[in-house]
Amino acid sequence: MGSYTGYDAWGLLRFVGGMLLFLAVIVGAVLLIARRYRRRGEDTTTLAVDATLTLCGVAVGLFLISMPFTIVQTMTAATVSIDDFPFQTTLFDNRFPCEIESAAKTHPGIDCFGVSSAWATVSGLTVGVRALIATDQLLWALLAVLPAVALGVICFQLLRGIPFARTVTRTLTVSAVAVLVLGVAAPMLDGISKGAASAAALPSGESGAAFTEGGFSVTVPAWPIGAALALLALAAVFRYGAKLQRDTELLV
Description:
The chain has helices at 9-40, 47-76, 127-159, 166-201, 223-251; strands at 79-89, 117-123, 211-213. The two termini are 48 Å apart. It has a three-stranded antiparallel beta sheet with strand order 2-1-3. It is elongated. It has two domains: 13-42; 49-96 and 113-251, no CATH class. With 252 residues, the chain is mainly α. The longest helix is centred in the C-terminal third of the chain and has 36 residues, at 166-201.
């Protein structure tokens, strides 16, 4: 949901305050929904479903509002901020010579040390590299908002009284495919875009410079396969529930 790294106490306090404010907004939204239920005299058994649907709508709305600004900023800003920016450096070779066997130590100590990535702001990137970075940001954002969309559809159909509607099974099936595609494509494009930015901003390794390009580091995770299979299994459960509901209605 959020993270803070640094030594600034005020920055830490601002981050904690922001997280507490975010949680307060969520609790406030739930309390407002509960109050509305009490005023109308409605059954509060669906309160959690209604609150979840509201939060899903907020998440999707924040995505639709913030994502265009993020893409425009990446494409037009003078500098682009990149986490885990890959590079190579020779600054630590003399201080920590990894090829030399260290003497026996009686206390913890560093024998070998290396740096391969850092947070960086890069200027002067070409449109092509910026497009790669913006596309990567979009893929990660879609992957993050996807659970809110699927859960929102389920809650909406549940409030309508048709939890086993065909829309739910279709949504879960499409979500499974989307998780598999986005979960594999986003990390791959992440490594490609950062490697391209490193190659554009830093000299090659043969130049002998202190800082040189870090190359491409592409990772294909396995978790999207498991998540997609879990969603497909859940879709099968809802599909079976719809069949049982139809059989029960025919018997009645």
